[in-house]
Design a protein that fits this description.
InterPro entries: Peripla_BP_I, SBP_2_dom, TAT_signal. By secondary structure, the chain is an alpha/beta fold. It is 40% helix and 17% strand.
């Protein structure tokens, strides 16, 4: 597969816990009766696993040329197969804005019941989201948000600020007893809002730990190659530090190579997103990587649940409201050796 520029590949990734997403899946599809009070006790229909009204869901995302994006597609497909009443119309995916718009317009012309869209560029695809909504097709906006709330019925995605916040708090707690502790940050693409949000969350968390100072930050571009190159630069510039936060587990593969080549093991490392390779390393406990902060691709499975509920005119189990929420932000759980077995099945390759 030809590689696309990193800015295209990961521009949509704006940051999470797989278990939180899993909880949402359960909530969306629960067969358990809910204890409701008042009018809602009798009136609110809830989506469940039992076959209901047939729903055709159109799914449009960018080109799956990254582990996280492949996992997004896999989660959507496998979730749709769970339901005998769901037909999934999935596009090939593209990082070219015009091409993705054309793919979505094809789904609109097919008169699908609901659309799930993960736009390569949320701002650029806002108009096609509006077009679908005006055509009476509700849109579940997945992860990268459209510029107008009128372009979608429901948004579901990760929490980039929360990723940085939780990574910072984890590191802070690990270094509580260390005087004059030093941390470094291996960020993603600096021109992306998601990177800025992750850094802001990290900085805000560190404010709670006066013994810690961030002494260096280097921006990479979410690839193995960039992670290795930029980490090598950090290691050369910083002869000693106590902790590293790396925004992305894919570039973390390269970062770990640079760390091994430098023979460094004098600090702890926290990753980001939740790749299987990172979780395997955390479980093995034989590297500096001690934790990763999740940005779960299981959100695509949740998006299918929400789209099915919308198509069937139902709500979410566990909530008293008649309608599904207008937005759902997933939690950024920290995966460590203590809980890695719980999250390992959600790790993406």
């Amino acid at each position: 597969m030809a590689r696309t520029p990193a800015t295209s590949r990961r521009s949509l990734l704006f940051g999470t816990a797989a278990v939180s997403a899993g909880a949402l899946l359960t909530a969306c599809t629960s067969n358990e009766p809910t204890n409701r009070e008042g009018a809602a006790d009798k009136a609110a229909p809830v989506a469940d696993d039992k076959p209901g009204k047939p729903v055709t869901i159109g799914f449009a995302g960018p080109q799956a040329d990254h582990g996280w994006l492949n996992a997004i597609n896999d989660n959507a497909k496998s979730r749709a197969k769970k339901y005998s009443d769901v037909t999934l119309e999935i596009t090939e995916g593209s990082n070219d804005t015009a091409q993705q718009i054309g793919q979505i317009q094809t789904l609109i012309n097919k008169k699908v019941d609901v659309l799930v869209i993960l736009p390569a560029d949320g701002k650029a695809l806002t108009q096609v989201g509006l077009q679908a909504m005006r055509a009476g097709i509700p849109v579940v906006n997945l992860d990268r948000v459209f510029a107008s709330q009128q372009a979608y019925r429901c948004w579901i995605g990760g929490d980039n600020y929360g990723m940085g916040l939780n990574a910072g708090h984890y590191i802070g707690e690990q270094l509580k007893g260390t005087k004059n502790a030093k941390v470094v940050e291996l960020a993603g693409l600096d021109n992306l809002e998601l990177t800025q949000q992750r850094t802001k969350g990290f900085n805000d968390a560190l404010k709670n730990y006066p013994n810690i100072k961030k002494v260096a930050r280097q921006a990479a571009d979410f690839t193995v190659e960039s992670g290795q190159a930029k980490m090598a630069q950090l290691l050369q510039a910083q002869s000693s530090f106590d902790a590293l936060w790396n925004h992305d587990d894919d570039q973390g593969v390269g970062a770990l190579r640079a760390i091994d080549q430098a023979g460094r093991d004098d600090f702890l490392m926290v990753g980001g997103a939740g790749a299987k390779s990172a979780m395997d390393a955390i479980k093995a406990g034989n590297s500096v990587l001690k934790a990763t902060v999740l940005y779960p691709p299981t959100m695509a499975a949740s998006a299918i649940d929400l789209a099915r509920a919308l198509g069937q005119g139902k709500g979410v189990g566990g909530l008293a409201e008649f309608e599904i929420p207008s937005s759902l932000t997933l939690y950024s759980a920290v995966v460590t050796k203590d809980n890695v077995d719980q999250y390992l099945p959600t790790g993406f390759i």
